[in-house]
Amino acid sequence: MYSSKPSVNQLIAQMHAHGIAHVVVCPGSRNAPIVNDLFELARTTSIKLFPVTDERCAAFVAIGLYLATQKPAAVCVTSGTALLNTLPAVAEAYYRHAPLLIVSADRPPQDINQLKGQTLPQNGALLPYAPTWQLPEEGGQHCEERLSEALAALSRNGGSPVHINVPLSEPLHIYNKEYIALSAVVKNDAQKTDTPIVPSLMQRIMEARQPTIVVGHMDFAPEDLLSQLVASHKFLVISDSICSLQTLVKSQQAQLQQLPNASCHHSFSPDLFIHIGGALVEKRPLWLDGHENVPVIRIEESADLSPQAFGRLEAVVHCSTVAALRQLTNLPAKESVKALYAFCQNRSRDTSASFQLSQSAAVCRAFMDSLKTLCNHSHLIIHVGNSQVLRDMNQAAMNNPPCKLFCNRGVNGIDGSLSVAAGHSLATAQNVYCVLGDLSFFYDSNALWNERLQGNLRILLINNGGGRIFQNVKGVSSSRAYQHIAGHHHSTARGICESYSINYMAIKPQDAIDNPQLFKQFAAPTTQESRPLLIECFCE
Q: What is the pTM (predicted TM-score) of this model?
C-alpha cells in the first residue's frame, strides 16, 4: 500500500517518469513514507532500491550507481543533519557533472527553528552546489510543476545535482493507497546549436600551428570525436588516465608525455590550448613547463563557471563538449601536428622511458601488469583513491595497454572513494577494482557496511601508515607537527574486514612485484554469493 501523502505519491511517480531507476535509501522515520512508496513501486517496475545506513557514504554510492548505468541516480534521507551529510558527495557531483538527485524528508515549515527535534533549515542547505525545490505537502498542480522543473534540471549544464525537499506533517505512517497514477516516461528532446564556437574563435583556432586539446577529468569523454581529431592530425590531445580515453588518444598521449622540450621542428610547441573536462591529476603537469603563457580557450558546460586551470585564459565557450568537438572536426589537418605524432611514434620505438618507482608505485605497476595478463584489460573498471595512489596509478596506466580509471577528482577529497566503487559494483556484473591509500580507506570504511555487496568488488589497499604525498610537499616534513599533518597511524584493515565479512589478505610490496600471480584470485570471476576481497599491502 502507498502513502496517504499526495506530495510523496507525486514525487515517486515523477521520478519513475524521468527514468530514475536506482535509488539509495537511508533509514529514518520522517522519510519512511517516501521509502515505502519507492519500495511498493519497485515491486512492479524497474526501480531498484539500495539500503545504506551512513548518509555520508550513501550519496557517493549513488554516484557509483550513476557511473555504472550512465543514468541519474537518487538518494533519499530523513530530516535534520542527515541531509548535511550528503554535502561532500553533492559538491563532487557538481564539479564532475553527475546527475545526482537528493530527496530529503523535512518537518513542516512552522516547526523550523522551534527547538523541535531533528529539525534544521533544509531549504537551500546544499547551495551553491544543488538548488532546492521544496514541495507543497498538499500536492496538486503546483507540486507537479515543481517536480517537473527539478527533475529536468538534472540534465542541465551537462549533468547537475538537484535537491528536492519534502515537508511532511504528522501523522506520517498511513499507508492506504492501493495504487498511484504513473505518468508517461519523459523524453528530453531539447535541441542544442551545432556551432557553439563563434566564427572569430574558429578562425583563431584554425590559424594555430599546433593547437592542443587538454582533457581534464571526465567520466564519459567523447572518445570517438577526440580519436577522430587525432587520427586526422587536426589536434594534439593530452590527457591523464582519469579522462576516460582508452584507445588511440591514450597511446599517443603517453608518447607526448615523454617528449623533451627541445627547440626543433618536431618539438612540442603548442600555440593554443583548448581545455575540456575537469581537473588534472597534477596541479602543474610537466608538459606545461615553458608553455605557461600559451592562450587557453575553455569549453565549459556550466553556465556559471569560467575556470582558468592553467595558462592564459583567452575565451570561454559555454556549451556542451560534444557540440564543440563536433564543430572542430570540420577544421583542416595540420602538418605540424602530423609531424609531431610521427616523431613520437619513431621515438617510442627507439627509446624506452625508465622511472625510479616508489614502493607503492611499483605495486600499482605490478597490479596493472597482472590484470593485463589475467583479464580483458580494455574493459576493466578501476576506481582510484585521491592523493599519492592516484599519481602512482596514473603513471602505471600510462605504461600499460589503455584502461579507464574512475576517480573522485571533482573536489579532490579523500572521502567517498570506496563508496563510489561500492555503488558501481552494485549495478554491474563485472569486477570493480578499487585501489586506494590508507587514509582514504579508513575515512570511508563504512562503505563496506552494506550487505548487498558481492564478490565483484575487489580492493587493493596501499597502507603506508599515513599520507605519503606529504613527503613530496616542499617544507611540510620540516614541521614538528608533521605526524599530525600527514595523519600518521598504525591501523590495519583486518578487523574492519572481519566485521563486514570481507575476505582479507595481507601482503608485502616485494610479494606483489616478484609474483604477478598473486593477483590471480583478485581477477577471478565472481561466484554466486561470494563476498568482496581486500588485499592490504604494507608499504614504507
A: 0.92
